[in-house]
Amino acid sequence: MEARLDEQVKRNIELQNRLNESARKIIVKEISEGLADTQKEKLASLAEGVDFTTDEEFSKKVRTIKESYFTKDSVIKAEVADETPVEGSTDDVSPAMAQYINAMHRWNQ
What we know:
Number of strands: 0
Strand content: under 5%
């Protein structure tokens, strides 16, 4: 009877560990939304060192890591180029570049 009980306890522990690991992966995936792939990998590796007690606590800890390491300033944003034409002459550029500039100027009008 004790052997069966020990076997069931071991099996229950294994199932709980698998459940916790799945929950960890899901939480990390949800929190890493919007990050670059390299940042997602970095967050996942940092989250491996965090103890899992409950979903809420783990989620809170991973969010703290994300906010600490991946601030809004570190996220690369696409910059919009200033598309206003440059006023002035094309005398100081090569003749080939002057042709490109003139063609672009005509195309934009």
